[in-house]
Amino acid sequence: MGNTSSMLTQYDIEEVQSHCQDLFEQQEILSLYQRFCQLDRNAKGFISSDEFLSVPEFAMNPLSLRLLKMVDGLNFKDFVAFLSAFSAKASLKQKVKLIFQVYDSDCNGKVSFKDIMEVLRDLSGSFMSDEQREQVLSQVLNEAGYTNESFLTLEDFIKVFGSCKPEMDVEIPVD
Fold it and tell me: I need a labelling partner for 55 at 20 to 30 A (CA). Which of 25, 37, 70, 139 fits?
């Protein structure tokens, strides 16, 4: 499976399915493998940042630089595992965990006021001033029972998102 020019065996497909908690059907994994091979232009067995940025939807995403830290150098199995959070079958916890990782850019297991401000800055650009962002974020945190000095954990994110399921499902085209 390291050589992207080879075909996936039934064993490889089942191994990938198991790795991504059976969130993708076999045909979806085959389609993802074709896409992976297209992105892995030099057939290295992993996808680099530059190759990810060749996907227009990814490059245009205001959080692409944060996401690149998470996806740079993924092999096929980890590529599918990353995408599994976008499956309609993914649990709330799987989806929230990915969102948490986007905010927790230093990977310390905590999200600070500063971390959230950085994401808000990426998302809102020049449409909001830092002062406006701080006001909105302070109000939201206070309403949720947190302060600007609070550190949010994954469990906090799950509690906050517990009443809604983030809309981040992506359909895998099957040939």
Answer: 25
